[in-house]
Amino acid sequence: MENGWNPWHGCKKISPGCKNCYVYRIDKRHGREDSGEVRKTGNFNLPVKKKRDGSWKIPPGSEVYTCFTSDFLLEEADEWRKECWEMIKQRSDCTFIFFTKRIDRLKDNLPDDWGDGYPNVVVGCSVENGKMADLRLPIFNSLPIKHRLIIAAPLLEKIDLLPYLNDGIAQVSVGGESGNEARVCDYDWVLDIKRQCDEKNVPFTFHQTGANFRKDGRIYRIERRFQHSQAKKAGIDTK
To answer: What number of CA atoms fall less than 13 Å from residue 113's CA on the CB side?
Structure first.
C-alpha cells in the first residue's frame, strides 16, 4: 500500500533539474506564488496519527513516499527533521522513501542511532545530467544507507552512470520531464542507461516518458495521464 507524507511544503531550486519543478507548477495552478517559502504542513505528524478506533492512519506495511512537495534534506527544514526521524523510527512497520538533490547534506543530518542505516528507509539520489551525477553519486555511494536508488529524472541528456553502479544500488529509475515547458527526453538516453544497468546487473525501470519524448528522431507530445503508462509499454523494465 502506498501513502504520501509531506511534513513540510515548498522548496528552493538548486540545479538544472529544478527549472520546471512540478511543485511550483502545481502551486501556481492553485493560485499560490510562494513555492520557495518552506512551511510545516498540517500532516507533519501523519505517521503517528491514529483513527478513532486506535489504528494507525498509515497502515502497517505501507510504503510512505516522503517529502514529495519539497526535499527532505532542505536546509530550511533542519529544525523539524529530528522529529521526523523519530517518527520514522517509531513506525518501523512502514517503509519510508525519499528522493533528494541534496545528498551532500545527509551525513550531517542523520540521527545519532542511524548506524549503517535504518532498515525501513529508502534513499533516492536524483540526478538529471552528467555534471550532477558526477557531483552527487560519489557522495551517495560513500554514505551508510541500507537501501539506495538512483533517480535519473528529469533526464536532460545522456549520462554515464557506470562508475556508480554496484551491488549497493537497489534500482535505477529513469523519467522525462512533465509540464507544458518540459525539456525533451530522448529514448536513446533511456536505452543507454538501461544498457549500463544490464552490464552491472542493477535493476532498471523506466517510470515516465515526460511530456516531450523523442524517439527515432521524432518528438512526441504525450499527455500527463499517459506518461507513466507509455513508459511501461516500452517493456524495458528489469523483469
So the answer is: 8
